[in-house]
Amino acid sequence: MSVLPYVVAVWICLVGLYGIVTSRHLLHTIICVSVVQSSTYVLLLAVGYRQGGVAPVFVDIPHTTPAVDPVVQALTLTDVVVGGAVTALLLAIAVQIEKHLHTLDPDELDPLRD
Question: What architecture is domain 4-108?
């Protein structure tokens, strides 16, 4: 078992979190949230990987052949869809903020302003 995919997932997550913390623009923050989300893809695929495993389609293969976990693949696909929906929602909110407040700088956003 290799720890490399887990190290890569943690590294991608830390890079995204660093970008979120140091961001000075809402679009940059949204992109960094997407980077953190992509680290979960790597993590889920690392959990479901089996050395020498084949696709979980059990037609015309021996019963002793190892297969990758189809549940983890389904979770990864669901994660991709949820990540796309969250990114689209955050971008729509950013467009509305820019339209109404004419800025995407988080320091200039005043929640009490009309």
Answer: Orthogonal Bundle (1.10)
